[in-house]
Amino acid sequence: METMTKTKITVQALVNAPVKKVWEAWTTPAAIMQWNFASDDWYCPGAANDLRVGGKFTSRMEAKDGSFGFDFEGIYDEVVDLKKITYRMPDGQQATTTFTGKGEKTEVTTIFDAETENSVELQQGGWQAILNNFKAYAERMVNMETLYFEIEIEAPASKVADIMLGEKTFTEWTAEFNPTSTFRGSWQKGSKVLFIGVDDKGNEGGMVSRIKEHLPNKHVSIQHLGVLDKGKEVTEGPAVAGWAGALENYYFLETKGGTKLSVTLDSNAEFKEYFSESWLRALKKLKQICEA
Q1: Domain 8-140 in CATH 3.30.530.20
Q2: How far is residue 218's CA from residue 213's CA, in Å, rounded to a whole number?
Q3: 3-class secondary structure, 203
Q4: How far apart are CA 284 and CA 288, in angstroms?
């Protein structure tokens, strides 16, 4: 019996980041949620990754207009730390990604079996677009990492979102970060918003940001542009080095018991402990308000 040879497709990118950082960005669920989509019309509201031979990974892919969504998943056949990953998808397609360190750069190459429903050109273009997203994310995060927090709240997503973003209730749960915490601006996509806290001398400090995305009751993405220093907006210079472009994302997922709220946050090493402790307190406070 003649065996059909599967068509193999290759996509590749040279990432300006060391291999350890690239590997973390490729395999950490919170990071995967930031880059695993082919265009701005899509987003990835959830990911899980059991990184071992026989382990399973899942990424939720959804169109922002709500028209379509699916789970991209597979089982690992081979995992070589910092070097190679091979997995098999439910339809039998296999994909292998290799990571080749080149000093402070890393060559990432994925070779995968083509499926038969779409053209080779379309498949290659889609996978390359995702890899290009990954490259941009990994390079931006060389000196940072994406933190992840989640909490189950016994309330519908619409209520959780309204309370989380409401002008009055925002100050209640964010008091866990700063007792004077508030915001000035709009949550509308494209709008500028200032996140403000007042010090003991009455000076306003905080972040200068814009709303990158807002899908009501589903997803909010905040892009931080700079800092607020004594009431002055600073978006250039040493004060904002590393922070410009950092993202803060909220995901609202309806569950049988209410809402699973997930938060991803880009942070540098200096603020990691502070954010880790403060976000846990803030989410518990938000849960308390929503369930009251």
Answers
A1: yes
A2: 10
A3: coil
A4: 6
DSSP H or E run through 283: helix 269-291
pLDDT digits 0-9 by tens, 71-91: 999 999 999 999 999 999 999
Which residues of the chain, if any, have pLDDT below 70? 1-4
- Give the residue from 272, 15, 274 showing the smallest Cα distance to 144: 272
Q: Is 130 left (phi over 0), alpha (psi -120 to 50) or beta?
A: alpha
Q: Which class is domain 145-291?
A: alpha beta
Nearest to 220 by CA among 192, 246, 252, 177: 252
Query: Phi and psi of 55, rounded to 5°?
Result: -75, 160
CA distance 62 to 229: 38
> Same fold for the domain at 8-140 and the one at 145-291?
yes
* Distance from the Cα of residue 43 to its chain's centroid: 9
pLDDT digits (tens, 9 = 90+) for 3-44: 457 899 999 999 999 999 999 999 999 999 999 999 999 999
- Say if CB 254 and CB 78 are below 8 A apart: no
Q: Which residues contact 109 (CB under 8 A, 6 or more apart)?
A: 10, 11, 12, 97, 98, 100
**Domain positions in the chain:** 8-140, 145-291
Read off φ and ψ for residue 274, nearest 5 degrees. Answer: -60, -50
Between CA 113 and CA 145 the distance in angstroms is 32
Give this prediction's pTM.
0.93
Which run of H or of E encompasses 163?
A: helix 157-165
Contact 189, 214 (CB under 8 A): yes
Identity at 46, one-letter amino acid code: G
